Amino acid sequence: MRPTDDLGDLNPRRGDETVFGPELGEFPNADQRAQSAEKGEGMKTGTTTVGLKTDDGVVLATDMRASLGRMVSSKDVQKVEQIHPRGALTIAGSVSAAQNLIQTLKAETNLYEARRGKEMSMRALSTLTGNLLRSGAFYIVQPILGGVDEEGPHVFSIDPAGGMTEEEYTVTGSGSQYALGVLEQEYDEDLTVGDAKTVAARAIKSAVERDLASGNGINVAVVTEEGVDITRHKDIDELLGAEA
């Protein structure tokens, strides 16, 4: 075993490992990975995700394409996942980091409910998500959190550095500017959940038409007091026709 005075200069966040580490909450090389992300190093990815709030619930929608540089690496990816009995998260960014983030959030929400006998509020869940991103362990992910709690429906936009803002509607990903144009024109605070599904589908369709990293269909998550319902549609026009 190494003497204690040798361990005093070690810093787990810098990537130094001890005979006892890494411990839970330590993320080796987190600072280096953060610096690489800030410099834009690594393979570029893209997507489009949107979130809208209504009086009766939340609608989240994403395209279904995974990109790797200039290549389409998958045409059937689900980019919205249930992480809470009445909450879901869209993912944009690194697939590995996003999958790890979702698994961590599912475990934490289950643990919270088991310990306290009640569901985690959406504000607490958004804070937890922001803190995890701020730790440097999940570079680089930019999710949208949507859910319903005792205070009603919520949509949170969470940036890769952990900053959180609650919004009526929001977008993330490389197709954001195209999707946001539709939301700016068509979002209304009096939308029903059905209306919000139509607006979300139009926003994703607009991005798919112009953003090379978005395409191959749409996943839609509807979150209400009854729970989370995620559906998959390869044909966006067919979904729009069904909702009309």
Automatic annotation (TrEMBL):
<feature type="region of interest" description="Disordered">
    <location>
        <begin position="1"/>
        <end position="48"/>
    </location>
</feature>
<dbReference type="InterPro" id="IPR029055">
    <property type="entry name" value="Ntn_hydrolases_N"/>
</dbReference>
<dbReference type="InterPro" id="IPR023333">
    <property type="entry name" value="Proteasome_suB-type"/>
</dbReference>
<dbReference type="InterPro" id="IPR019983">
    <property type="entry name" value="Pept_T1A_Psome_bsu_arc"/>
</dbReference>
<comment type="function">
    <text>Component of the proteasome core, a large protease complex with broad specificity involved in protein degradation.</text>
</comment>
<keyword id="KW-0645">Protease</keyword>
<keyword id="KW-0378">Hydrolase</keyword>
<dbReference type="GO" id="GO:0019774">
    <property type="term" value="C:proteasome core complex, beta-subunit complex"/>
</dbReference>
<keyword id="KW-0963">Cytoplasm</keyword>
<dbReference type="GO" id="GO:0005737">
    <property type="term" value="C:cytoplasm"/>
</dbReference>
<keyword id="KW-0865">Zymogen</keyword>
<protein>
    <recommendedName>
        <fullName>Proteasome subunit beta</fullName>
        <ecNumber>3.4.25.1</ecNumber>
    </recommendedName>
</protein>
<feature type="active site" description="Nucleophile">
    <location>
        <position position="47"/>
    </location>
</feature>
<comment type="similarity">
    <text>Belongs to the peptidase T1B family.</text>
</comment>
<comment type="subunit">
    <text>The 20S proteasome core is composed of 14 alpha and 14 beta subunits that assemble into four stacked heptameric rings, resulting in a barrel-shaped structure. The two inner rings, each composed of seven catalytic beta subunits, are sandwiched by two outer rings, each composed of seven alpha subunits. The catalytic chamber with the active sites is on the inside of the barrel. Has a gated structure, the ends of the cylinder being occluded by the N-termini of the alpha-subunits. Is capped at one or both ends by the proteasome regulatory ATPase, PAN.</text>
</comment>
<dbReference type="Pfam" id="PF00227">
    <property type="entry name" value="Proteasome"/>
</dbReference>
<keyword id="KW-0068">Autocatalytic cleavage</keyword>
<dbReference type="GO" id="GO:0010498">
    <property type="term" value="P:proteasomal protein catabolic process"/>
</dbReference>
<dbReference type="GO" id="GO:0004298">
    <property type="term" value="F:threonine-type endopeptidase activity"/>
</dbReference>
<keyword id="KW-0888">Threonine protease</keyword>
<keyword id="KW-0647">Proteasome</keyword>
<dbReference type="InterPro" id="IPR000243">
    <property type="entry name" value="Pept_T1A_subB"/>
</dbReference>
<feature type="propeptide" description="Removed in mature form; by autocatalysis">
    <location>
        <begin position="1"/>
        <end position="46"/>
    </location>
</feature>
<dbReference type="InterPro" id="IPR001353">
    <property type="entry name" value="Proteasome_sua/b"/>
</dbReference>
